[in-house]
Amino acid sequence: MPIFDGLRPEAIDLAARRLADGGLVAFATETVYGLGARADDDAAVARIFEAKGRPPEHPLIVHVTGPEAARAFAARVSPAAERVMQKLWPGPVSVVLERRPGLAEAAAGGLPTVALRCPSHPVARALLRRAQEMGVAGVAAPSANRFGRVSPTRAEHVVAELGEALTVLDGGACNEGIESAIVDCTVSPPRLLRPGSLPRSMIEDALGQGVGHGDAGSPRVSGSLESHYAPQARVQLVASHELESRALQALSTQDPHALAVLARHRPALPAACGFRAMPDNAREAAHILFDTLRGFDAEERQVVLVERPPDDPDWDGVRDRLTRAAAPR
Ligand code: TXA
Ligand code: MG
Predict the structure, then answer these.
(1) 192 CA to middle of ligand 2, Å?
(2) pLDDT digits (tens, 9 = 90+) for 8-39
(3) Which of 93, 179, 187, 192 to mutate to test the pocket of ligand 1 (most atoms within 8 A of CB)?
(4) Dihedral sign, CA of 63, 64, 67, 71?
(5) pLDDT by residue (tens digit) across 279-313?
């Protein structure tokens, strides 16, 4: 059985041992499931890229037990990073810092910087702590999906993506549901390279200053490739008032079963069409987003119409993932 109950100490022990030995372990975090390897072992990290089919120059996030462990990987901790770590860790925010030369070279994709994150999920925390006791300073972990695909938010998703042979620490459905916000703290003011489920305003409150936007000159963020987080179905973002007409249009060429809608209200649709209610609240929407897209794939929907989320900054994370899911491949 590849899936272990991540709350059982024996499972944590076995998984931590596997990491210490240079193996791969998938584990629950509060954002999405991660595929981990010890960050200080380039050969172990190479196995992540291989399993995901991810280009090796894409940097990974290094997961640590807290600010103290983060310092081992950073050449310098800027005051802004210090504030984020003190106020928002453990939690769904990663910081980019100057990297300590010679450490986590492969995990950082050769960049002079490193992204660090301290997750709050009890399974991730137990694993990181136990692995640390075994000499693992940090665990490099991208989302546990094949490159470019929807991130997994349940243990079963990981198995569906990466196969039965992998050790998976089950921690239930991820609370946040989309990946961490990434804040580049190597520049002043810091820049938000990837929005997460935590509103930008909470990050700015913690920093005591506004954050800039990532731009084309920003370091490589694979989530910043246009087409990413893509399900098999074609995703289209549609304004609320156009949902009904776009659905009718789709039904003129598609079988009703091929169509699904994610919106606040179910438009008039044949019963065979799929529907899931979009929560009014951005954090709840993030929580169901990837699971819903995967569910539509499992039902073999071909076209998914999604109601365009509000312009409100709280929706930045969800809007970002949906825009990429809808980008042409
Ligand atoms: O919530 C999360 O962050 C999840 C869970 C597993 O913790 N992890 C995750 O990893 O989303 P991944 O590999 O799917 O995304 C990592 C992102 C990539 O977009 C990568 O380019 C960016 O972090 N990144 C890593 N190191 C960086 C660096 N030094 N500078 C800029 N971006 C970096
Ligand atoms: Mg990913």
Answers:
(1) 17
(2) 999 999 999 999 999 999 999 999 999 999 99
(3) 179
(4) negative
(5) 999 999 999 999 999 999 999 999 999 999 999 99
